[in-house]
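Let us practice reading a record.
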Amino acid sequence: MNRIICVMLFCMAASQAFAQLPSCNGVRYRNYAFTGVDSTMNVQYGQNVTANNVTQNLIMDIYQPHGDTVMRRPLIIFIHGGAFVGGNRTEGTGFCGLMALEGYVAATIDYRLIDVPVHDSLTVTDGMIKAISDAKAAIRYFVEDAATANAYKIDTNYIFIAGGSAGAITAVATTYLNPADNIPTYVLNAINNNGGFSGNSSTNTNYGTPIKGVLSYSGAILYKDWISAGEPPMLSVHDIGDTIVPCGYDDSKAFAFSMYMYGTCEMKGEANLKGVYNDTMIFAGSGHGAYFQNNQALLDVLQRTNNFLYTLICTNTVSINDISDVGKVTIYPNPVNDQLQISNPENVAIKNVKIYSINGALMSVHSSSIIATNNLPSGLYFLTIETDMGTTMRKLVKE
C-alpha cells in the first residue's frame, strides 16, 4: 500500500518539475536501506572571524550510505546546540549516521561560537547571524560540488537543514529570514555587519542556498512573521514546559537577560496561517529536549522525522494546499479539527472514502460525506474518494 500511495501521488504531481527523486521506493528515506556508512571527516567548508576577531576554519563531517549507487541524493545538514556559546559538531554524529543508513547524505557542522562576554541580547543576535552565515556557507559547499566535481552526488532540490536548540534556532532563521521580511533595525545591523543575507563565511557566494525543508528540535524564531507563504515546510518538536527555548512566546531562561522568542507552539500557528506545510510534536515534559532522554519518545521523533522527509521527497509537498485538484470533489475545512465534509457540486455519488496515514496505513473507511475526525492524531493524511466518475485523491491536514 505504501508504494501504491506514492505512485498515485506522483501521478497527481507529474506536472511539477521535481515531483520526486527516482530513488523513492517505499523503503529508502523511511527505513534503514543500507548496512554501512562511509564518513569523510574534517572537511573545511569556509572560514571567518569570530566576535573576538579570531580566524576560524569552518569544519564539517560528512556521512554517506556505503555502497550507494544512486546519483541524485537528498542532503541533511545538522547544526548543534549550546546557546551559541558551546557545543560542537560531534553532537550530530549519531543523527547523521542514522540518516545515512536511510539513504541520505548527512553533514554535521561546526560554526563560530560567541567568544566574548555575553551581557545582552544584541550579542546573542550577532552570534545567531554569524551561525546563519556559516550554515549558508555549508549549503553552498554542496551546491558548488554538485555543479562541479559532484563528489557527493547531491540533488540540490532536496537540501534539508536541521538542528537542536540553538542549532534549531539557526536552522529556522536560515530558512525563513530573508530581505522581504519585517526586520528590526538591530537584527538588520547584525546582518549587514556579517556580509549581508548571503553571509561572508565562504567566497563562493555566486552559488545559492536552496532549502527544501527544516527540522527544528526544541527551536524557535525571533519573529514569527518571518515565516511567509510559499516558504519551505517545517517539522518542529518541543517540550511544552521548556523554559530554555520556550514552546510559546516567552523569555528564554538560557540567559541572565531578557531574550524573547517564538517557539514551536507559536511557529505552528504562524505556518498554518501562512499555508506553509508543517508537522509538530509537542511533548508534556518540562525539560529542554527531554524527549531525547526517553527511548520511546526518541523513536517516535525519528519516525516522525522519517515520515516528514519522505513526504517532502516523494510527494513534493510544499504547502497545506499544494496537491492539484482533480475533478469537482472538494474537502473542507482543511486543516480540520473534529469534522470533515466532502462537497460534490455536480452531485456525483460518493461510494466510499478511505483515509490513509502518510505511511500508507489504512486508518478508516467511510460511506458518508460527513466524517468525524476527532479521533485522528494530528498530522498529514491522504484520502481516496471513490465516486461514480472514478477515484480521486485529496490531502488532509489534521490539527
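A brief commentary: The radius of gyration is 21 Å.
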